Predict the structure.
Amino acid sequence: MRSASSDRAVRRTTSGTADATAPDREDGRVVESEGADDSATNASAATVAERESNAVVTSISGLGPESGARKRTGMSSESRLSSGTNLDTDEPDNEPEVVDRAIVEQRVLRALSRKALSEKEVRSLIAENGLDGSETEDLVARLIDLRYVDDDTLAEELTRRLSEKKGQSKSAVGRALTARGLASDVVSEALSEIDDGEERRVAFQVAEKRAGQMGSLDAQTMERRLSGFLARRGYPGGLVRDIVSEIVRRRPAGSSGPRFR
């Protein structure tokens, strides 16, 4: 049998050994925890780096929101890759542009519903919408057959409106018709309705109306302003002088403005 003193010595030794090993276990737990934290930190850093890398690629390749560019409907980045899209330019490689003729027709008809267009203007509108070749010719021919496009009628209407309602000269009307893309023979035919007598009548009419708004002006100022008014409408100098002189001469002496019978 061991003595009581021996038992106490054994207990002290065992307790000391336990105390000595306890810090080692604690240190082990600390080291293990720190290792886990380092792993989590590294994983988080890798995730951030990956996101930043993806963000840079998105910005460079143009896969982000499109602004002011022609959009490709229903194409994800994966679809673009599989269809041969160049990610640097966001344009397809050798992908033909498909134009829907029905849509182009509707756009042209809407434009014609707003105002009459010449054949040249219609052709330009069709080209702007991407239709060309035989389809353009077919569409233009159809519009002409249905009289949606009629250059002769358009020239007549423009001539009447610009001459009678706007008071423009024959030469000014001719320039306006040409600017609308009307052929020279169509323009000449429309202008044949304006002879010298008709042009003088229109010029005198618009000048007389204008003179009625110059009641407070003296004769010299009125003459100068009326001359400029008619010249801006394209009337020739000789006709302008004759009309202005007649209007000023018919102005009663001492009158503050012209009075016509």
